[in-house]
Design goal:
- The complex is a heterodimer of chains A (275) and B (270).
- Chain A contains 13 helices and no strands.
- Chain A is mainly alpha-helical.
- In chain A, helix 11 runs antiparallel to helix 13.
- The radius of gyration of chain A is 20 Å and the shape is globular.
- Chain B has 270 residues and is mostly helical.
- Chain B has one domain.
- Chain B is 74% helix and 0% strand.
- In chain B, helix 3 runs antiparallel to helix 6, helix 3 packs across helix 10 and helix 4 runs antiparallel to helix 8.
- The radius of gyration of chain B is 19 Å and the shape is globular.
- Classes of the chains: A mainly alpha (275), B mainly alpha (270).
Chain lengths: 275, 270
């Protein structure tokens, strides 16, 4: 029997790594409560802040959308960036390294599997938030909205792959670093207010995070009348930058994975636990 | 000793400078989200009459997840990560003292963050906290009672995490998130629908935050305007006493169940 081609192994690995995340989610359905309930609590708190200060109703929509998109950022942080650290702690990382497959395929499988539960969470937040808080959206262009959303995800998960490689060198600080990146990114990416409020310079710097531009563009496409006054860049420009970021992060993650794996092998960090 | 152990676990993964930044950046970013929401939208920006109460409430709330979720996290950390919970139980230590000690380390870090947040609010954002106007006795009484109350809440949650396997990581976060919403931390309690506001009025943490607002700002919120300072403290003290009974009974019950089902050294790898 001939050996499968590299391409076949790559895709089998993607499916194989995505499988436990998707099937695992089916077996333990109670996660749905935590994955939806927790972000909804935060979204609800921010909605009531805007209600208390009598903000225009569109701002409630900004919060709901921000809360939904935050699910992807949290997934990238906890299920992509820190994943190789968890695998190291549970003794799986050595198995990944000795397996005759591409590490990029493993990361891609993680991303695909993670996207399933995260998308469910994001959809639930959007749906429940929209119904509960009477959010009214008027989509100015469905293809543009879908294009921006998908490109944002590709760029974001590409960034997650890059972070995953970097985290290969970390011990306990990986957990703390992910924890640290939650609120500051919520702030600079404008999860709960238009990013332009931070000023052009900060907003431009925060654009290295794909979710900043993705969120701003999606808000413009969903709330065109209101976000006209608060927009950072036009959706077309933001989409073009997102495409650039997606290519850049995927390229960098490929290079970084090889580099940091070599470094971690040399320093003997691949199998060190409880650091 | 447990507090020292907690401090070492919390802080020894980084040098003190990195650790200080780590401890401050998270709450600071959370507060700045509020600041920008008010600055961009509120009619009077940061001069909105709601802002000082909201800022102080948000700053003081740092204690809640730190102590409450911190203590319950100790059970998960010791059992699942370090595999040490069974040794704690075999050692001649009082488990309540141990859990509270571990919570103290989190409370110390939280205190630094709270002080810096209040300084930021006072010096840079116009929050009218004046040293001369602070009722220090009221602050001390509120702080002592509040620490006891949050520790007891944490112990109660620790009991829950001891007998649950999956999702125990999210229990502390879920409870803290619920309290953030229901206790009127970042908006007046009456903004919530009546049934949610009524729920918030049953939770002692709402009274604790109100007491702090009065002590630091000289005034509280509309929701508790009818209560005098003495009544407020009495409510906090009374609910802390009730909570003490519930926490001890609840934790002992959970402990008994955990021993019977062999959960003290469970490792779910979840």
């Amino acid at each position: 029997m001939s050996a499968p081609s590299q391409w076949t192994v790559f895709w089998r690995t993607v499916v194989g790594r995505a499988y436990p995340r998707i099937i695992g989610a089916q077996r333990e359905k109670s996660w749905v409560f935590f994955e939806i309930f927790l972000p909804l609590l935060q979204v609800t708190a921010y909605v009531y802040i805007y209600r208390a200060i009598q903000a225009p109703p569109e701002f409630i929509g900004f919060v709901v959308l921000g809360g939904a998109m935050s699910a992807y950022w949290l997934n990238v942080l906890w299920s992509m960036a820190t994943q190789l650290y968890w695998e190291k702690e549970t003794g799986n990382l050595e198995l990944y390294i000795v397996a005759p497959t591409s590490r990029m395929a493993i990361l891609l499988g993680m991303a695909m599997g993670g996207l399933f539960a995260t998308t469910l969470r994001a959809v639930a937040v959007i749906t429940i938030g929209t119904v509960l808080f009477h959010v009214s959206m008027s989509v100015s262009s469905v293809p543009a909205l879908v294009g921006v959303f998908l490109t944002t995800l590709v760029a974001l998960y590409g960034m997650g792959m890059l972070l995953s490689s970097l985290f290969l060198l970390f011990g306990r600080e990986a957990w703390h670093l992910s924890n640290l990146l939650q609120e500051p990114v919520s702030l600079v990416s404008g999860f709960y207010f238009p990013v332009r409020a931070l000023g052009q310079v900060v907003a431009a710097a925060a654009s290295i995070l794909p979710i900043t531009l993705g969120l701003d563009a999606m808000r413009q496409l969903l709330f065109p009348a209101m976000l006209g006054k608060f927009r950072f860049l036009s959706p077309g420009v933001e989409l073009a930058i997102l495409v650039g970021l997606a290519i850049l992060f995927l390229f960098l993650s490929h290079r970084a994975l090889a580099f940091f794996e070599k470094l971690a092998r040399r320093d003997g960090r691949l199998s060190v636990r409880g650091q | 000793m447990a507090a020292w152990l907690g401090w070492q676990i919390e802080s020894n993964w980084a040098d003190p400078f990195v650790f200080a930044i780590y401890s401050l950046v998270k709450p600071l970013a959370g507060a700045l989200i509020l600041v920008f929401m008010y600055a961009v939208i509120a009619k009077d920006g940061l001069h909105s009459p709601l802002f000082p109460g909201v800022f102080v409430g948000n700053a003081l709330f740092i204690y809640v997840p730190a102590v409450l979720a911190g203590i319950s996290w100790t059970i998960i950390d010791d059992r699942e990560h370090y595999g040490m919970l069974k040794y704690v139980y075999t050692a001649p230590v009082n488990v309540f003292a141990y859990l509270i000690g571990r919570g103290v380390a989190k409370a110390i870090v939280a205190t630094v963050a709270v002080v810096i947040m209040l300084l930021l609010g006072t010096l840079a954002l116009g929050v009218p906290v004046r040293l001369a106007g602070i009722n220090w006795l009221f602050v001390a009484a509120t702080l002592v009672l509040g620490s006891a109350m949050l520790s007891l809440f944490g112990i109660l949650l620790g009991g829950v995490t001891m007998i649950t396997a999956r999702h125990n990581y999210g229990v502390g976060e879920a409870v803290a998130g619920g309290l953030y919403l229901l206790c009127g931390v970042v908006f007046p309690l009456d903004t919530l629908p009546a049934w949610l506001a009524a729920t918030g009025r049953v939770i002692p943490i709402s009274y604790w935050l109100e007491a702090f607002r009065r002590a630091l700002l000289g005034h509280g919120t509309e929701a508790f305007a009818s209560l005098s300072d003495g009544v407020l403290l009495a409510v906090i003290a009374g609910s802390t006493a009730v909570l003490a009974v519930l926490a001890v009974l609840g934790f002992r019950l959970a402990e008994r169940r955990a021993r019977a089902k062999g959960l003290l050294d469970m490792q779910t790898m979840y």
